[in-house]
Amino acid sequence: MSLLRIRKPKTRKGKKVLMAREPQLIEGPRNMLFLDGRKCGGDVKSCMKDIQQLKKPLVKVLNRNNDITPFEDPTSLEFLTQKNDCAMFAFGSTSKKRPNNLVLGRIYENEILDMVELGIKRYQAMSEFKTEKIGTCVKPCLVFNGPKWSQSEELRRLKNLLIDAFQKDKVEAIRLQGIEHVMSFTCTEDLNILLRSYKILLKKSGQRTPRIELVEIGPSADFSIRRTKIASEDLYKQARKQPKQLKVTKKKNITRDELGNTHGRIHLGKQELGKIQTRRVKGLKKSPEEKKADRQKKKELMKAAAQELLTNNE
Fold first, then answer.
1. What tens digit of pLDDT does each residue of 1-31 get?
2. Which end of the chain is more exposed for a tag (fewer CB within 10 A), N or C?
3. Looking at the whole model, is its pTM more than 0.85?
């Protein structure tokens, strides 16, 4: 329990809710808050509905219009995200100056970490594609095309923001039949973002690995980057910091191969095989003939020792 908590719970349920909102050692999947501005309609409305369909069930929707300007005064937006326990948000609005405006952002410590304002230049909804759609709760495979994604800090943050937006539960293993959905993001030379969505079809190829075909299922959109607000390098580094308990420490003389098997190296001292006790093992007991030969050998050694003593005394 955090000592910096301001609100004190009055009930057991309230205590559980406040503790769930505190930083966790292993964070769960992030919820996304969808809300409309003073005016919102047309392509922005349908775009937000399609994103909600792809994000389900990690979605919370506010149906009322909100008089919010995220880049000028984000306090109302931060309050709504904290109230609804959402770490990300999508804000849609339209105006004469900025038509078809979509703002994507994320929250850290109940404050906006970074957000990007995208203008919808062309949009084609999922309902316009008369093809078979994917099921709900399907984790998409994200593909980023073009060298522009790594040439500026703003585009690198936008790429990371899109990964956070469409990422769901973390998986330990991947099954080939479980990969059904691909989302492609292409950054063009004039810094437009092209969003395409495909369904993966596994066809017979006559071999062990199937032949893969992609069928576009929507949504399909062309975005232009308008305004951005990114966190400072220190704040961004602090937001990405992992707890010490989750850091993997390197153990001495232990290695892992490509198949995930663990190999350990053990250092032993010098072994004296002559002192190892083996007489109690039935398979190594001496036969009567060997015992008789040992007694005869001992007698001969005793006789030789006695004769040597007599010669020395003389």
1. 444 546 688 899 888 888 877 777 777 788 9
2. C
3. no
